[in-house]
């Protein structure tokens, strides 16, 4: 069966058929999927009943696995998964939904904010691949915004204003906006702000995109209030319904997205019910800007 792709949204998102992700990809299939990612930025694969090893094997067709350290307040002894996948569930090590007052649960609520995975790292992530193992019965849709189309729709004056701007990104900015402000000294060091360009150029098709995230809390050349107002305006523009695709999860869906070209968020859901989502993250290969000035 050959690979077929059907576009789901005006600007981006492709629904892929003709692949069984339980089986290794041929080199030709891997290159076809990567080329589709360059075009669509988000790919949806239905009915993929895969295990952790198969999910990771699929991800490794597109680069190295990202080291997940430094992206959570969960202690290593409390990790639920040991397969190298990122745990994006609401479950504790015992397999039950986390208590509402759990520090991990409160920290993870930041995933409900618009963001790009790992923009808080000096070298941010390339691709994310999220597998639905248990779907919550109420809520929990994931929304994706096309940052390329959002950039294209800006007026020329705004493009000229922002093209060379640099932002500071940190998990402390995104979580702080929800009132999560208590960190240990080790966590403060781990979440030290890093620098990222506000506008990125894709390495293959050279199309420009906004690089926004709730992790962005400051524009280097501006006062904090001035920079945050500009970031709010850009986020409001970029998440207009015209640029957004809403994915309503079905069991065994796998959704793959390019963090260099999109932003996403999960919507609120019933936290008393289990939601088991597992993410493989493909590492980026270079920083968007040198890091010396990040303090």
From TrEMBL:
<dbReference type="GO" id="GO:0016706">
    <property type="term" value="F:2-oxoglutarate-dependent dioxygenase activity"/>
</dbReference>
<keyword id="KW-0408">Iron</keyword>
<protein>
    <submittedName>
        <fullName>TauD/TfdA family dioxygenase</fullName>
    </submittedName>
</protein>
<comment type="similarity">
    <text>Belongs to the TfdA dioxygenase family.</text>
</comment>
<dbReference type="InterPro" id="IPR003819">
    <property type="entry name" value="TauD/TfdA-like"/>
</dbReference>
<dbReference type="GO" id="GO:0046872">
    <property type="term" value="F:metal ion binding"/>
</dbReference>
<keyword id="KW-0479">Metal-binding</keyword>
<feature type="region of interest" description="Disordered">
    <location>
        <begin position="268"/>
        <end position="295"/>
    </location>
</feature>
<feature type="compositionally biased region" description="Basic and acidic residues">
    <location>
        <begin position="268"/>
        <end position="279"/>
    </location>
</feature>
<keyword id="KW-0223">Dioxygenase</keyword>
<feature type="domain" description="TauD/TfdA-like">
    <location>
        <begin position="5"/>
        <end position="281"/>
    </location>
</feature>
<dbReference type="Pfam" id="PF02668">
    <property type="entry name" value="TauD"/>
</dbReference>
<keyword id="KW-0560">Oxidoreductase</keyword>
<dbReference type="InterPro" id="IPR042098">
    <property type="entry name" value="TauD-like_sf"/>
</dbReference>
<dbReference type="InterPro" id="IPR051178">
    <property type="entry name" value="TfdA_dioxygenase"/>
</dbReference>
